[in-house]
Amino acid sequence: MSDGYVVAVVGAGAVGVEMIRVLRERNFPVKELRILARSDREMTIDGQTYPVRATTPEAFDGVEIALFAGTEGEKGAAVTFGEEAIKRGAVVIDNGSDFRMDPRVPLVVPEVNGADVERHEGYIANPNCSTIQMVHALKPLHDISPIRRIVVSTYQSISGAGAPAVKELDDQIKAVAAGEPLPPYQNIPTQLAMNVLAGCWKFRDNGYQDEEWKMVVETHKILHDDQIKITPTAVRVPVAAGHSESIYIETERKITADEARRALAAFPGLKVMDDPSPSEKDPHARTYPTPLDAAGIPETLVGRVREDPFVENGLSLWVVADNLRKGAAQNAVQIAEELVSRGCLRR
To answer: In CATH, what number is assigned to the domain containing residue 14?
Structure first.
């Protein structure tokens, strides 16, 4: 067992900060932590001050694991510095989208296809946040009976668009509450306060948004099954953090709701919250997950499990996760843990 590893976190935004928190909370064996960004400075996270170094090729000398935070909708730093990190002996775990569909690069959710890290050639990709929580919840059901169709609608928080977008939503909410004009649209295409938006991402020629099509191709790659029929709709909602998904599946054989709940509850990293009936003592009580329930926790939450009354093998469920945690930073750190446990580092 190593006395620790030299780990670089590349990116000091919301995902990078969460990566540092998760490394600490999960007691990852870090011998030396390097935080790399565009320029030298200091940053404080939860009362602890860290030095930040400018990202250069030389900054990766001696690094064994390089966690690239990536940014939704933009080219990540891994495009510029990933090869340099690999040349110096690191394994790159990239949260950006640039390498996800490269056939040489494993796309990994550790609870689902952790063994795929064993075939890395220096790069490992973190899937899109919406894909991560969906395949995490569907894997135990896919193991019982292969899934043949998925219809999914996402309800995605604004934090997926970055910290400036979170502030812009906050400013919109304040303006609406005060009856004042909305601030100029900069990071959000139109009014999101008191609204939902089904067109926040770039549209493809087939009518689907990039965010939606990622769920199709990434799910096929992660589950090693490109025959699954997937129809996604991605929606941005006025929530600060936490993505929710309404998922409908059709399987080869019928899976009852009770069978599904048992399988979900037994699967690593999933927590079932599924008792929507009001309590006699508290008619407002409910047990189904919301984004507030998922905030800051490591689990993917599942509820509203129910059978389709019209399709024999149809099943619906509601899945919620913290998109900055399980949907990004935590999943990347779990990939690093998988590398260590399987002895797949390059030292």
So the answer is: 3.40.50.720
Domains identified in the chain, total number: 2
pLDDT computed for residue 72 by the predictor: 44
User: How far is residue 35's CA from residue 11's CA, in Å, rounded to a whole number?
Assistant: 7
pLDDT at 262 exceeding the cut of 60: yes
Residue 346 lies in a domain: no
Q: Which of 120, 136, 142, 243 is catalytic?
A: 243
Same domain, 216 and 148: yes
Q: Is 243 labeled as catalytic in the residue annotation?
A: yes
* Residue 123 shares a structural domain with residue 155: no
* Integer angstrom CA distances of residue 4 from 29, 32, 45, 179, 243: 5, 8, 22, 55, 33
- The question of whether 129 is a catalytic residue gets the answer yes
For 175-231, what is each residue's pLDDT tens digit? 999 999 999 999 999 999 999 999 999 999 999 999 999 999 999 999 999 999 999
Candidates 129, 136, 142, 200; catalytic one: 129
The verdict on residue 260 lying in a domain is yes
Structural domain range at position 54: 5-127+328-341
Cα distances (Å, whole numbers) of residue 85 to 70, 79, 93, 225, 347: 15, 11, 11, 32, 13
Give the C-alpha separation, 20 to 329, whole Å: 8
pTM passes above 0.85: yes
